[in-house]
Amino acid sequence: MNSPKSVAAVLLSSERKEVLLIKRRDVPVWVLPGGGIDPGELPERAIEREVLEETGFTVKVARLVGDYLPINRLSKRTHLYECIPLLHRAPYPSPGGKDMERGIGKLAPNKETLAVAFFSIYQLPPMPPPYLEWIQDALLNAPPVQKKLLSISYKNLIKNLILHPILVLRFLLARIGCAINSN
Question: How far is CA 62 from CA 29, 84, 104, 114, in A?
């Protein structure tokens, strides 16, 4: 079987009641940090690099949550990791406005990221598939799963094109390398 092409990270609070999400610039939706694996790069190093680039947080891999297999050309084989912070330094905001202690470096949204915040696992913002499923898999704290990415389908793409045409068009443009970055 071919190796994974992308990685994603779940960073949970120590109580496992909050999860770190990023708001993308190209398609302004909340998602887990992650991205592509560079040629010759190990998936574990790729996720550490991606989290640092997208959030400014330095992390280490705690465990592999799952290996997710595409069913079409809309997605890539993805390894999902649970990651933990390396440092304990500064307060970072939650969407509710109160500061919470987070030990993970310096909050640093970049050219790919509009915002970074912790959300209660009971009050997550709307997210495209499969992020909610991935968060649920991480919360199980079970051995790694291997699943097909059934939620990323052409049927769901058409449904979301009707419900959210601008977001889907921005997603499709980003997939072909024509990202539109929001301010």
Answer: 26, 6, 14, 26
3-class secondary structure for 21-34?
EEEECCCCCEECCE
Q: What is the mean pLDDT of the chain?
A: 85
Q: Tokens 């398609």 correspond to what residue?
A: 27
pLDDT digits (tens, 9 = 90+) for 23-60: 988 888 999 999 999 999 999 999 999 999 998 889 99
Instruction: Give this prediction's pTM.
Output: 0.83
| CATH superfamily entry for domain 6-175 | Nucleoside Triphosphate Pyrophosphohydrolase (3.90.79.10)
Amino acid (1-letter code) at residue 77: R
The ranges assigned to domains in the chain are 6-175
Please list, residue by residue across 110-134, b when 16 or more beta carbons sit within 10 angstroms of its beta carbon and e when fewer do.
Answer: eebbbebbbbebeebeebbebbebb
